Each structure stands twice: as structure tokens, then as C-alpha cells.
């Protein structure tokens, strides 16, 4: 492999992730801090990011109708998903995404509690104080504030292959996507080896397995 190709591959690798315990600490901060009427919303945002690995720009476009409560699924239409940069015209496809895939997050419980007691009636799943739809910047700000409230030091993977620790400023919505991959690839309590790299690829809705391998293959050995 050429030096330039190796550099490109390294630059695509996920560098920051959270442990399940750190995700729980951020959720606790969401339920304990901030405006009381926003706490359930913020906790549900964290739960949904941790469970599904949704991109921020998709999360903010979710509507209440896309949550299929009885089925325990999210419906993700094509038009809200990230478009591929490789010229493919058959991806992304509309997708039904199961919630609580490994039984550790309780996303449905958070969603149901939040929606049953929501302070604002909006067609979008996550409204803000000022609008019926949160912006991606608002979500980033919520995540950053909660990471600081919980004093999170995420794990950082550097170019030398060593793990270190970061600080709350390293935590942003996309880190939960990386953390989902790490959690699933390290789920060693199952006997069926269900959560392999192929499962992660489908869960994160990558158009190509190669994308998943470039970003997360190193997670399998750390």
C-alpha cells in the first residue's frame, strides 16, 4: 500500500468513541440538568443516537410519523438520508430500523415517555424552544453541554494505534455513531456472534462494506 493511500485510510478511521458507561452518564446528565421541560427530549436524543447511530442531519428531520410505535421501528425515507458520493443511484433506500437492537438502551421506553408528555405539539420528533424543528447546531450544542455536565473523557484512537483519553469538547453527535459500532463489535455476551462487521454495516446503513471496514475494522482488536 502506498504511503498516500495508507494516510487516506487512517484519516477515515473513527478516532473517538464512548463506552456504554459514558453514554449512560450523559443520559443521566440529560435527566438531571437543564430546563425541566427539555430534559426528556434531550435524554431521548442521546438514547436514539446511541441505539441507532443516526447522523445528526437525519435525526433533526425525523417526524413523529416516522416512529412506528407498535412495531418498535423507525422508518427512514430515502429523502432524509445521506446521499452517496460514488455515483450510485440505488442508495440510500428507504429503511425500517429496529430499535433497542441489543436490549441495552431502552430507546422505545424513552421515546414513548417523551412523546406522551411532550411540551410542544410538533410534526417533527424533536422541536426546539424557538421552532418546531431542532437544527443540527442545536443538537450539537445539547450534546456538548451534556458531555461537559458529565465530565466525559472519551477514548481517543491516535494514528500510532494507541488509545488515550480526550475531553468533553471531543464529544459530538457523530461520536455516538462510532460508539455504536464499538459497542456492537465488543458484545461478547452473545453466543451467536450476531453483531459482526456485517451487522454494523447494515445498522449504520453504509452503502459499502468497505466503508465500514475502513472506519471500524480497528475497533475489533482494541
Structure description:
- This protein is mostly helical.
- The chain has a single domain (3-221), classed as hpI Integrase, Chain A.
- It is built from nine helices and six strands.
- It has helices at residues 3-12, 20-32, 36-52, 56-59, 107-116, 136-149, 173-185, 197-204, 209-216; strands at residues 16-17, 67-68, 73-76, 95-98, 155-157, 163-165.
- The protein has a three-stranded antiparallel sheet.
- The longest helix is centred in the first third of the chain and has 17 residues, at 36-52.
- The radius of gyration is 17 Å and the shape is globular.
- The model is unreliable at 1-11 (pLDDT under 50).
- Keywords: DNA integration, DNA recombination, DNA-binding.
- InterPro entries: DNA_brk_join_enz (IPR011010), Integrase-like_cat_sf (IPR013762), Integrase_catalytic (IPR002104), Tyrosine_recombinase_XerCD (IPR050090).
- GO terms for molecular function: DNA binding.
- One of its GO terms (biological process) is DNA recombination.
- This is Integrase/recombinase XerD.
Amino acid at each position: 500500500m502506498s504511503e498516500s493511500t495508507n494516510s487516506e485510510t487512517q484519516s477515515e478511521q473513527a478516532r473517538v468513541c464512548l463506552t456504554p458507561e459514558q453514554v449512560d452518564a450523559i443520559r443521566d446528565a440529560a435527566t438531571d440538568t437543564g430546563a425541566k421541560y427539555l430534559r426528556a427530549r434531550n435524554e431521548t436524543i442521546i438514547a436514539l443516537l446511541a441505539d441507532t447511530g443516526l447522523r445528526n442531519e437525519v435525526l433533526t428531520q425525523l417526524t413523529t410519523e416516522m416512529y412506528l410505535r407498535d412495531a418498535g421501528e423507525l422508518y427512514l425515507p430515502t429523502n432524509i438520508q445521506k446521499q452517496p458520493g460514488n455515483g450510485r443511484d440505488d442508495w440510500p433506500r428507504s429503511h425500517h430500523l429496529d430499535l433497542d437492537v441489543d436490549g441495552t438502551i431502552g430507546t422505545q421506553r424513552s421515546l414513548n415517555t417523551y412523546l406522551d408528555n411532550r411540551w410542544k405539539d410538533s410534526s417533527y420528533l424533536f422541536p426546539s424552544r424557538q421552532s418546531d424543528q431542532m437544527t443540527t447546531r442545536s443538537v450539537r450544542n445539547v450534546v456538548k453541554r451534556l458531555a461537559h455536565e458529565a465530565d466525559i473523557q472519551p477514548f481517543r484512537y491516535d494514528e500510532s494505534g494507541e488509545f488515550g483519553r480526550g475531553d468533553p469538547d471531543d464529544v459530538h453527535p457523530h461520536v455516538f455513531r462510532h460508539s455504536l459500532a464499538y459497542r456492537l463489535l465488543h458484545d461478547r455476551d452473545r453466543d451467536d456472534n450476531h453483531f459482526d462487521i456485517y451487522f454494523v454495516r447494515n445498522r449504520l446503513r453504509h452503502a459499502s462494506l468497505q466503508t465500514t471496514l475502513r472506519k471500524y475494522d480497528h475497533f475489533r482488536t482494541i
